[in-house]
Specification:
Layout (H helix, E strand, L loop, with lengths): L7 E3 L2 E3 L4 E4 L2 E4 L5 H21 L5 H17 L2 H4 L4 H17 L10 H8 L4 H17 L5 H17 L2 H18 L1
Antiparallel strand pairs: 1-2, 3-4
Helix pairs in contact: 1-2, 1-4, 2-4, 7-8
C-alpha cells in the first residue's frame, strides 16, 4: 500500500486532505465507514425523541406522528442510499433510538407491545425497511430512465467497470434484469 501523499490544486488553490467532510448533510469519511455520520445522526434523532417524550402527555397521537415523521423519519431517510449499508455496529444505535421513538408512539397503556408490533400498528418502516424502499425506488428510476442523464452516465460507467473487472455473469444478470424491467414497463 502506498502511503505517499499527493497534492491537488484547483485554480492554483491547494485542496487539503481531510478525514471526513460534510456534504449536503451527509458526513463522508475517507474510508467510507459512515461511522461519523451514524453517530451524528443518532445524536440528532435522540434529541427529537426526547422532545417527543416531553410533549407526549400534552398532545394527541396524530401530533406525535407528525413530530416523528417531520423531525426523525425525515432525517433517518435522508441519504440512506449512501450510508444505509454501513456496518451493523454503526446502524444499531440508530435503530435503538428509532425504537425508543416507537415506544413513545405506543398507544397501549400497559406498554406491553413489542417494538415490531408498534411499527406495524403505526404503519411506520424500520430502518432496514427504509433503506430497502429507497434503494428499490432508485433502482426503479434507473430501470425506467427517470434519473438525471449525468447520473445515468455515471452508473452505466460503473456497470462497464464491473464488466471489465469482475465476473461477466454478474453484469449479464444486471443487464438482463434491466432489460426485463424495461420490457415489463412498456
Amino acid at each position: 500500500m502506498c502511503t505517499e501523499s499527493f497534492i491537488i490544486n484547483v485554480n492554483s488553490n491547494r485542496i487539503e486532505k481531510t478525514l471526513s467532510y460534510k456534504y449536503l448533510g451527509v458526513i463522508v469519511e475517507e474510508k467510507l465507514t459512515w461511522q461519523e455520520h451514524c453517530k451524528q445522526l443518532c445524536c440528532t434523532i435522540c434529541k427529537y425523541v426526547g422532545a417527543m417524550y416531553k410533549v407526549k402527555h400534552y398532545v394527541n397521537i396524530q401530533a406525535l406522528r407528525i413530530l416523528y415523521h417531520s423531525s426523525i423519519n425525515s432525517r433517518a431517510q435522508y441519504g440512506i442510499i449512501a450510508w444505509g449499508r454501513a456496518a451493523s455496529c454503526h446502524l444499531q444505535p440508530i435503530s435503538v433510538v428509532l425504537n425508543s421513538a416507537m415506544r413513545c408512539l405506543d398507544t397501549d397503556a400497559l406498554l406491553t407491545n413489542k417494538v415490531t408490533t408498534i411499527y406495524k400498528m403505526q404503519k411506520i418502516l424500520q430502518l432496514k425497511d427504509i433503506y430497502n424502499l429507497e434503494v428499490s425506488k432508485f433502482k426503479y428510476k434507473y430501470s425506467t430512465s427517470q434519473l438525471p442523464a449525468t447520473l445515468t452516465i455515471i452508473l452505466n460507467s460503473l456497470l462497464m467497470f464491473i464488466y471489465i473487472t469482475q465476473d461477466k455473469s454478474k453484469l449479464d444478470n444486471l443487464l438482463y434484469q434491466k432489460h426485463v424491467q424495461s420490457q415489463v414497463l412498456k
